[in-house]
């Protein structure tokens, strides 16, 4: 096992090698949201779509971080919607659990073990056997908020968005996700397809997602830093 695979855990980044030929992950930056012996799940942070959050989720649009569009989280299950959010109280854990209304008929997100409406995803509200410390299942809390790492977590979009106003400082919505079977991601890392790196606080909510791949690499020590200047077409070099 390489040093890179030993550092896999929720909240870390997978940064694609520019030689990776899969168009789904060309110069992508993926945040791991779950990792364990049975597999891994991540969200591509730098694939904004042309669809505004207000189109499918108008009730959440006022909380969405700019650019307030749906992001393409990966090639798997585009009908699955996953929301990343950051607590407004950095360093103080998750936001205070709101009181969810009952009589109005709004669904209680605490009754949904996945935190993702309409789909069960291992590792988000469900235990992955052998999950590493920091994975979502080890720090799940009630109220629709499930902590991933530090002040970063997932938010159940079936809840009341007004209950989280002022309690989250950033929010981004992803359609689809990237998934790996057990041992698959480790094999790709061993083959040099990905670098496993620390995330900066604002990576998941970057205002300029199109340049995120380059900016993440530029803050690394050399020689990895030099990869940021790899040409779009190697033949041009």
Overview of the molecule:
The protein has a single domain (3-228), classed as VC0467-like. Mean pLDDT is 79; it is low at 91-142. Helix content is 8%, strand content 28%. Strands 1, 2, 3, 4, 5, 6, 7, 8, 9 and 10 form a ten-stranded mixed sheet that branches. Strand 2 (29-36) and strand 3 form a beta hairpin. It is mainly β. The protein contains three helices and ten strands; from the N terminus they run H-E-E-E-E-E-E-E-E-E-H-E-H.
The count of domains is 1
Number of helices: 3
Order of helices and strands: HEEEEEEEEEHEH
CATH homologous superfamily name?
VC0467-like
Shape label = globular
Output mean pLDDT: 79
- Our measurement of the CA-to-CA distance between the termini, rounded to an integer number of angstroms, reads 34 Å
User: How is the biggest beta sheet arranged?
Assistant: 10 strands, mixed
The class by helix and strand makeup works out as mainly beta
CATH architecture: 3-Layer(aba) Sandwich
For the CA atoms, what is the radius of gyration?
Answer: 18 Å
Residue stretches low in confidence (pLDDT < 50, at least 5 long) are 91-142
Number of strands: 10
CATH fold call: VC0467-like
Keywords:
globular; VC0467-like; 10 strands; 3 helices; mainly beta; single chain
